[in-house]
């Protein structure tokens, strides 16, 4: 029993976590799970943490296949696909994530605002001079390389870049194709986020696998050469890399939440006048400019970072579980894995990898 207590899932001892899961399972089995914020939050947090924990422990999965994050998505998707979780609960999760409750907006506001304001300003400015131009040029090359290959394969330029290139460049599931799928859904006629997310997910998953395997191989091949940066993209001092120590304060966390939500609302207002640009994009630009010009008082910045850390620590796995349960269609996911799709993913990784390498050498990175 003592050894079991030493096993912790997101800071919770295994026996206590098992108790939570039994209560959740019993409530669902009896058809009594409240399909509101309380019930759905409990479901997503417990399920998300558990699946992430398992994924991080599985060999190969934790090294090459995206670890806990991807396993959480896959596991939750399978639970939904095989009807382990009742359909009414899945429907409620879908409404909670996007439709009526907007849980994703809540999460993404914390993610964007806290992530950017939490960066070291001097490092951000320094990175802007080299890293950002390299990243932008690399993305442009990758964009047109995938589009061109798509035309050669008969998949079309637009479909190839929208459903392979763009999601692969978005950065992942939670902060990547989650907002991207919403942007597509808002911009396309009769856009459905669930269907679009399922079309974007294969590119992110398979692209990450290729990129991880490729990066590990290159790292080993060039381990003792001058071409290995040993994880450093832009030279930085210890002070720039050091994360400031923040003492958590309940009141400040509330202030940070209000600030993040207010900036998202500014994005919503701007989207009203410029509907082709999503509010998330406006929010990113606004926060980046505020950070670059040091326009946010230190105390307020720390408040936002506190709010970000609370949400990222406790709700990231829940978001992934919710996406898997309600936003991924396994049938669509499986049908996407064709040989043309694999070629397009390889094209993106190889083209962007080579471009960034040449530009990095040219700029002395």
UniProtKB/TrEMBL annotation:
Sample GO molecular function, one term: organic anion transmembrane transporter activity
InterPro entries reported for this sequence: 2-OHcarboxylate_transport
Taxonomy, superkingdom: Bacteria
Pfam families assigned to the protein according to its UniProt record, in alphabetical order: 2HCT
Keyword Mitochondrion tagged: no
A GO CC annotation given for this chain: membrane
Membrane-spanning residues: 12-31, 37-55, 64-85, 97-119, 131-153, 196-218, 253-274, 280-300, 312-333, 339-363
Sorted UniProt keywords: Membrane, Transmembrane, Transmembrane helix
Name by which UniProt lists this protein: Malate Na(+) symporter
Organism: Lactococcus garvieae DCC43
Organism lineage: Bacteria, Bacillati, Bacillota, Bacilli, Lactobacillales
